[in-house]
Design goal:
The chain is mainly β. It contains one helix and eight strands. α1 links the parallel β7 and β8. Pfam families: HDPD. InterPro entries: Head_decoration_D.
Length: 115
């Protein structure tokens, strides 16, 4: 197990539930806007008018969260989380700004949950 993925504890749900505890992340690969900078892991992304992934500025629905750092000068695409949970401490948006509570609600509407 990598050093940054330790187990903090366990919990269980009693009774009948629809959810499962083993939902894997939904990762996708998407085209990025060429030469738009380095996308660090945790950068929230949106789609521009040409359907390319760019850093999220809060003006549109988030498309996902960059999962693996990506240099748009040398790569035409990046791997991003389209659905699932992400580390809240890693999340940023345009310019490296941290997310506000309203931003986190926007992520939840896009089925991305900050933990």
């Amino acid at each position: 197990m990598p050093a940054n993925e330790g187990v903090l504890g366990t919990f269980s749900f009693k009774g009948e539930h629809a959810h499962t505890m083993d939902h894997p992340p939904v990762l996708r690969q998407g085209a990025v806007k060429a030469s738009s900078g380095i996308y660090p892991a945790g950068l929230v992304l949106m789609r521009d008018a040409q359907d390319k992934l760019v850093p999220w500025d809060g003006s549109a629905t988030p498309a996902g969260v960059c999962d693996v750092p990506c240099d748009t000068a040398t790569s035409a695409s990046c791997i991003y989380l389209a659905h699932g949970s992400v580390r809240a401490a890693a999340l940023t948006k345009t310019g490296g700004a941290t997310l506000t509570p309203a931003d986190l609600r926007s992520l939840e509407k896009a089925t991305i949950y900050a933990l």
